[in-house]
Design goal:
The protein has about 170 residues and is mainly alpha-helical. Helices cover about 65% and strands about 10% of the residues. It contains six helices and two strands, in the order αββααααα. It has a two-stranded antiparallel sheet with strand order 1-2. Helix 2 runs antiparallel to helix 3 and helix 2 (about 60-80) packs parallel to helix 4 (about 110-135). The longest helix is centred in the last third of the chain and has 24 residues, at about 110-135.
Length: about 170
């Protein structure tokens, strides 16, 4: 539930953002940094040809979003490395997702890709703060101490055990 529940809570917001940024009248012709229109893509280079699903330009906010996602994926995989051999397909997929975002989000509104870029940066900063402020040895010692404590049985579990004894 720790992985799926936050995503389910975020999903309505993300869907709303997908519809909001391209259609928001307030963002049309509003510039921010190098993006001249937050409701459209922010091209920094125009290609002389068109790539299917990608377009004929390079969007800088999309490129920055992809780079930060790759960095976060690499950092996260190093932090969660348990020494066990991971499935190679899973490792490749973790790096493939940011590249797929690059291809699909290049045509989207620069406001949306800016949001994803800043969101990933905030997540990286949070991860670094947690990593360097939490004492892992102290936390593991507390977890081990809690494992040794006897577990209290709930009222339901007591009634279930009594019913099993009565049945036998």
């Amino acid at each position: 539930m720790g992985g799926c529940l936050p995503m389910l809570l975020q999903m309505p917001i993300l869907i709303a953002l997908f519809y909001f940024f391209p259609g928001a009248i307030e963002l049309r012709q509003k510039s921010f940094l190098w993006a001249t229109d937050l409701a459209s893509y922010d091209p920094i280079a125009t290609l002389p040809f068109t790539i299917p699903f990608y377009g004929n330009h390079v969007s800088l906010f999309c490129l920055l979003m992809t780079i930060t996602n790759i960095f976060y994926t690499k950092y996260n995989m190093e932090m969660t490395n348990t020494g066990q051999q991971q499935m190679p397909g899973m490792k490749a997929m973790m790096y493939m997702m940011p590249l797929m975002f690059l291809v699909f989000f290049n045509q989207y509104a620069s406001g949306l890709t800016y949001y994803y870029f800043i969101s990933t940066l905030i997540t990286i900063v949070q991860t670094l703060i947690f990593r360097y402020t939490i004492n892992e040895d102290k936390l593991l010692a507390k977890l081990e101490a809690n494992k040794r404590k006897p577990m209290k049985k709930s009222g339901f579990m007591k009634r279930l055990e009594e019913a099993q004894r009565a049945q036998q």
